[in-house]
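Re-run with default settings, no changes from the original entry. Doing this only to confirm the output is reproducible before filing.
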Amino acid sequence: MITPSDPNDSPTPPTPAPGFAVIYRWRIHADREAAFVAAWSRITGLLKSERGSLGARLHRGRDGIWYSYAQWPTEAARADAFSLGPVDEAAQAVMKDAIAESFPEILLEPVVDHLIRA
């Protein structure tokens, strides 16, 4: 049985979590990984600077699947940002071309945040 830890056990108090997060998952063509990373980085930066995203992280799993964890203030903020269309059509085309397989998005409601801030 898992029980909540005592807040006094933590060296730092938890930070309130952002209001909404999404996990994206893909298999990427091996010869297009660098192009995918560059295009993903471009799009993620623009979503953060122009559309209100709180940022994202990109991971490559040992299972061969690529994962992106993106945070937004609210689900509505994400929907509004995407309703405006692509932030960079060329970068989006590069990402699409690099993706061999996409998996359904996983929508998350963060509860508490213990990530280290850079």
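The chain has a mean pLDDT of 89. Strands lie at 20-28, 55-60, 66-72, 99-108.
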